[in-house]
Amino acid sequence: MLPALPLALVLLQTPASVTLRYQPALNKPYRYSTVASMTEALPGRPSSTIRQQMVTVLKATSRTGGRTKIVNTNESVKVAVPPGPNSGIEATRMAGRLQSIRVETTMDPQGRILGSSATSPGSLGMNLGMIGRQAFHYPAAPVKVGTTWQIPLDLAKMGGARGSAAAGKVPITMKVQKIVRKGPRTFVHLSVAMKGKLNFASQGRAATSNISSQGTLVIDASTGLPVTQEVKTSSVTPLGRGRTLSNTTFVVARQL
Q1: Local structure of residue 253 (DSSP, 8 states)
Q2: How many CA atoms lie within 13 A of 119 on its CB side?
């Protein structure tokens, strides 16, 4: 049997509820080891996988009236693509594109995006800044274990490849799984789930993708930033004549 005093101290150290706010320290770079694998499958062809490994860097450069300006960049980018006659050139091109991305966003205290811009609007740069921020903002009230909230992810704001457009709001469900106190820091463990349809047009052709996503995040309550993030996203796009295009993306990010 545990002594009464240590048990009481343990209970006191773990808060029943936490108010989550987006408040990273100013001018401090937060670095994340990030690995993303993307697998594409088409009927009649072997599946192909692209793997990206990099250090993503987030820095809060200013804060006025609770609004925080964030700059996202990438470092040490490595890309592996399926073998082919031009695979080396393609991997180098993709790595250079990712390395050059710079995304600036303005966030409110709950982590909602108030404005965003990128070095390459409508490309991977917008996706980097938008899905990692807009999807995961916090409720106004304190959260506790079991607290659940939904966020309509506006896909039209995420952009896509040049010459394409996307539309649709997909509900994302966030749920607090546990709250853990480690020394002076409190960590909130969240699950995330998303399911819906993405309508898009590319080069004059319209299509609809069924997308779903599941994952976990661990949030440092002192900053509102994730310390770990694991998300798997799948999409299926009908191509006509009974053919479909399937994509699966798995992203793992850990704060260094």
Answers
A1: E
A2: 15
